[in-house]
Amino acid sequence: MKNQSLSQRRVLAATSISYIVVILDTSIVNVALERISNALHTHISGLQWVVNAYTLAFACLLLSGGTLGDRWGARNIYLAGLALFTAASALCGFAPDLTILTIARVLQGVGAALLVPCSLTLINHAYPDPGERAVAFGVWASCGGAAMAAGPLVGGLLINMFGWRSIFLANVPIGLLGVWLTWRVARDKSEAQIRHLDLSGQLSLIVALGSLITVLIEGPVLGWQSLPILIGIAVSIASGGLFLVIESLRDQPMLPLSFFGNGLFSGSVVVTMVSALIFYGLVFMLSLYFQQVRNYSALQTGLSFLPLTAMVTFGSMISSRLTKKYGPRWPVAVALGLYATGFFGLLPVTADSPYWMIALPLPVIGLAAGLITPAATTALMGTVEKSRAGVAAGVQNSSRQTGASIGVAIFGALSVAIHPFNASMHTAMWIAAVISLAALLIWWLTAISNHR
């Protein structure tokens, strides 16, 4: 019994540590944008690739990460993912130019896509008791929430003391600690009923999302009617359609389209993607605003994000209680309303506005982001059988990373296409508010149809 308890603690410690660095890397890089721009001589489109290379690879491969864990053992794939993430972080830290940094960020995303679904499997195997398992998942998720909230501030402190490369190099000792802890965990057996890897579906998804993000980032630079952009649009549409056809014909698809026959499942995926799109798009745009318009240092930028990120953590803490009491419909609806209110509150902000004008709407947006994820997860997981819960969770996580990539691409494109920056930010806030209200309508309709 004592050995089992020790093994459980090792699994929880290893998976929580790795999840912290994975989530940190979705937000921490934003406070380094100005430093990276100056050091590697790049503009907004290059910075978009630095941010999006990670989330795009993460989103594209997340659904296959769990399948690989089933085939070759969750511990083995988790270790491979963590080792790759750690090595890629070192490469990011020593990258001599933008190309190498972008490639290294892609490798980080691949590593994250392998280790995140397998970390859930390891916790699931280590804690057979449902009550203990729920507590373990809560600890794991709380580590991710804390990492997202602390990301900008931690990044600002590291950059202020050691330079921008330190935000990547700091992952290395943490990653090595995670590898050491996982190495001491007993090997798990592969699943008796092995899911097949959907290679053609995976490839078509990579092409579809990759070409879409490329079009959104490079469109303002090359021109929306230029031949490369028109080809990119065609490739994205064709490969996206091909992906849907492949998934509809597969016996074991990486994305079971039958899930979307349930309105509540579809609504949960939509609001998860929209939340990530507008939240991470805002973080990217505000990072540029703080650093390039207001000339804040990395540390000042990190501190300026505290009203936003602190409320994300608070929202996550109360969301489960609200969902348990009222069901997921009302918390998600309120959160989307709060999103719209917060973005409308940012409309009057200009280059010369006092900081309090920015700080007042940020907690509202942060609270909305914190409320949505647990509530939407509860709604989504309640629509599928327990045997398919892992696949459903993968779909939701993938939609979140996809939304983040699209959000950074769209908000960045607005920054390039519309001048001055205040005008592009004003347009982005309008778009975010309208998208929030549209998502609210979709959510309400899907939630009502399911309630009936």
From TrEMBL:
Q: Which PROSITE patterns match?
A: MFS (PS50850)
UniProt entry tagged with the keyword Transmembrane helix:
yes
| Lineage of the species this protein comes from | Bacteria, Pseudomonadati, Pseudomonadota, Betaproteobacteria, Burkholderiales
Record-level GO cellular component terms: plasma membrane
Transmembrane helix: is it a keyword of this entry?
yes
**What positions belong to coiled-coil segments?**
none
Q: What protein family does this chain belong to?
A: Belongs to the major facilitator superfamily. EmrB family.
Spell out the subcellular localization from the entry.
Cell membrane
Q: Which GO terms describe its molecular function?
A: transmembrane transporter activity
Residue ranges annotated as transmembrane are 12-33, 45-65, 77-96, 102-123, 135-158, 164-183, 203-221, 227-246, 267-290, 296-318, 330-349, 355-381, 402-421, 427-446
- Please name the Pfam families in this protein's record: MFS_1
Q: Where is the signal peptide?
A: none
Query: Which InterPro entries has this protein been placed in?
Result: EmrB-like, MFS, MFS_dom, MFS_trans_sf, Tet-R_TetA/multi-R_MdtG-like
What protein name is recorded for this chain?
Drug resistance transporter, EmrB/QacA subfamily
Q: What is the recorded membrane topology of this protein?
A: Multi-pass membrane protein
- Keywords of this protein's UniProt record, alphabetized? Cell membrane, Membrane, Transmembrane, Transmembrane helix, Transport
Q: Which residues form the Major facilitator superfamily (MFS) profile domain?
A: 11-451
